[in-house]
Amino acid sequence: MMVFLKIVSPPALPLAGRSRRQRRIMANGDGFPVFLPKEVKNIKDPFARTLAQRIVRIPVPLQVGNFKGCVMSSCIKPIVQQHDKSPVVLLHCFDSSCLEWRRTYPLLEQTSLETWAIDVLGWGFSDLEKLPPCDAASKRHHLFELWKAYIKRPMILVGPSLGATVAVDFTAAYPEAVDKLVLINANAYSEGTGALKDLPKSIAYVGVKLLKSFPLRLLANVLAFSSPMSENIDWTNIGRLHCQMPWWEDAMVDFMISGGYNVASHIKHISHKTLVVCSENDQIVSNQLSVKLLCELQNAIFREVPDSGHLPHVENPKQFVKLISEFARGKIN
């Protein structure tokens, strides 16, 4: 079979090897893009630091509600585009960023899979100074417009936790854009943001500020990972880095009062081949929900990742990448 390759972007160069224009763009110190919060320089995790240097913004046309314009959308682009294979597109958890894939992304590239890591609208590191709506419908439409402009063929869509909900929501609306699904510790049965949608905006902003706080984020990391405290502290800083973006509070409040996601009714209609993944030691989402998901999907298979908590792609990336690689190549049935 003839393989067609398209070079998308060159491998990351050290700052000294870049042009003057590139150095202006990458002027935030230590080779990080200038649009990242300055706190990125305090991160110690070498995988996060390396992946952060590869974050780019790409223009995505968007027309939702009263918003019409172009969103400079943050993502990790593949070095090589392979038109004979379905690309792997990585979403992230609730209120997170593409840095969540810091330990998995380089391993996926080593398997020669074309891999994208995309920041969902309203989270991550996009330029949202002119803020579009950040409700579920807008997030879905933004992902579709990005797919239509850059990916352009059915993808293997990977979503952990709430990212699995995003993936189900997207697949139900745009089935032609998806080849296969990977749903990890899926939080697909939650009923939106519940009573939070009825909060007065002033109270919603107080809640969002609490969500951003270091103690609450650290507690979430302790529940998610069985790691030493020093590592959990650094991972907490990684997980809340996007919260330093100037638009983050407004985007979170907009999502909260919009009602969030409610996709339970879509699940039984999804016919795409789906890999349902759960972790051996998930303390956040019950494995029973993964079993329920397996039973309701039309064409699903189930795998458990050992020695991992809520985010197996962070704690056990080698085992996780093995699953993704085999599933992408049709070796898991």
UniProtKB/TrEMBL annotation:
Q: Which organism is it from?
A: Eruca vesicaria subsp. sativa (Garden rocket)
The record ties this protein, via InterPro entries, to: AB_hydrolase_1, AB_hydrolase_fold
Which segments constitute the AB hydrolase-1 domain?
A: 88-322
**Which Pfam families is this protein grouped with?**
Abhydrolase_6 (PF12697)
Residue stretches spanning the membrane: none
The cross-references to Gene3D superfamilies, in alphabetical order and at most eight, read: alpha/beta hydrolase
What the entry lists under PANTHER family is as follows: ALPHA_BETA HYDROLASE DOMAIN-CONTAINING PROTEIN VTE7 (PTHR43689:SF37), HYDROLASE (PTHR43689)
Q: What is this protein called?
A: AB hydrolase-1 domain-containing protein
